[in-house]
């Protein structure tokens, strides 16, 4: 009989004498490991499949879930397993009796020979399509910026009037009223009742929202509802309601009591509260806490003022203890004597400089007068000028008959030259003597 080499599967090397299951006989049997590996390889080629059924077993162990899903028309069941990582991605809670659609993939454990299905996705039947539509709407509104934190309006610190939209005679209404009034007894409410599930939920909630938004006394609007399954919360993910909340001028608080399935109202509202009670606590400040805070701030202010006043008094006493502050006249007297000394020194310096300049001026005036032609004329000398004003320095400049002007120490007079005299023939050196030693001018005829 032909023998085939064993193919290693899943990291396990078969015995050397093992044959493929299809070639096994009583004399050449295959091994258990080779058989399990072959089964696992065959099952892995199935891939993932979607199945519909009813949950008949749902056990949580160590964060993982082990259960069974039963066919709706027969008694056929399959074992399913959800790892904790898959469970964290699931939206909503599941329990025995739920009608579900699951995406499963067969898995065969070669060590024990156990067969089960691993679940990668699980949805409630009838809800899956709606949830997909909600996710598409979520992506659209996010792209439009309706989820942006920048567009969210701030909640007033102390709203005088709170608009409340909730179900009639609901526990949510009682929780909001009770907790808000415990924190701030003077708070007022404008309550509008609306259906919180079903077909009437969206139109009634929108009408109540628009009425409260138009009320000028309402400072903030709270939309409150107790918890519920995803099916009953679909109204709070309706596009009409979401756009009405985004268009409101009054801040809106979403207080839908749930955690696992968050409706889109939580994303569009200006503030999201986990429960109606949480909404009352986050919208209305606690009067006791505020009074304690005021008392604390007043105590801190009083302490700071006391320290500042004490410090300033100490500084003032330190300044007043200085000698100059005890007798300010001492400072004035010392400064006045110093000022008198400086003034005296300045006056003496100025007087000395004025006297020196006065003497210098007199000397210059005397020297100027000595060099002045007027002094020479005053001693009896005269200056002869031609008619054009030229001074006569040589006898040849005034031949006989030349009219001249004679300037003396006091005034001038006209004369006429009679020509050069014998004295004008003196050596030229004599002509170069100073004017004070020069001979008398030529004889003139007046």
From TrEMBL:
<keyword id="KW-0963">Cytoplasm</keyword>
<dbReference type="Pfam" id="PF02601">
    <property type="entry name" value="Exonuc_VII_L"/>
</dbReference>
<comment type="subunit">
    <text>Heterooligomer composed of large and small subunits.</text>
</comment>
<feature type="region of interest" description="Disordered">
    <location>
        <begin position="415"/>
        <end position="446"/>
    </location>
</feature>
<dbReference type="GO" id="GO:0008855">
    <property type="term" value="F:exodeoxyribonuclease VII activity"/>
</dbReference>
<dbReference type="InterPro" id="IPR020579">
    <property type="entry name" value="Exonuc_VII_lsu_C"/>
</dbReference>
<keyword id="KW-0269">Exonuclease</keyword>
<feature type="domain" description="OB-fold nucleic acid binding">
    <location>
        <begin position="31"/>
        <end position="122"/>
    </location>
</feature>
<dbReference type="Pfam" id="PF13742">
    <property type="entry name" value="tRNA_anti_2"/>
</dbReference>
<feature type="domain" description="Exonuclease VII large subunit C-terminal">
    <location>
        <begin position="146"/>
        <end position="339"/>
    </location>
</feature>
<feature type="compositionally biased region" description="Low complexity">
    <location>
        <begin position="424"/>
        <end position="436"/>
    </location>
</feature>
<comment type="function">
    <text>Bidirectionally degrades single-stranded DNA into large acid-insoluble oligonucleotides, which are then degraded further into small acid-soluble oligonucleotides.</text>
</comment>
<feature type="region of interest" description="Disordered">
    <location>
        <begin position="1"/>
        <end position="33"/>
    </location>
</feature>
<feature type="compositionally biased region" description="Polar residues">
    <location>
        <begin position="23"/>
        <end position="33"/>
    </location>
</feature>
<protein>
    <recommendedName>
        <fullName>Exodeoxyribonuclease 7 large subunit</fullName>
        <ecNumber>3.1.11.6</ecNumber>
    </recommendedName>
</protein>
<feature type="compositionally biased region" description="Pro residues">
    <location>
        <begin position="437"/>
        <end position="446"/>
    </location>
</feature>
<dbReference type="InterPro" id="IPR025824">
    <property type="entry name" value="OB-fold_nuc-bd_dom"/>
</dbReference>
<keyword id="KW-0540">Nuclease</keyword>
<feature type="domain" description="Exonuclease VII large subunit C-terminal">
    <location>
        <begin position="345"/>
        <end position="415"/>
    </location>
</feature>
<keyword id="KW-0378">Hydrolase</keyword>
<comment type="similarity">
    <text>Belongs to the XseA family.</text>
</comment>
<dbReference type="InterPro" id="IPR003753">
    <property type="entry name" value="Exonuc_VII_L"/>
</dbReference>
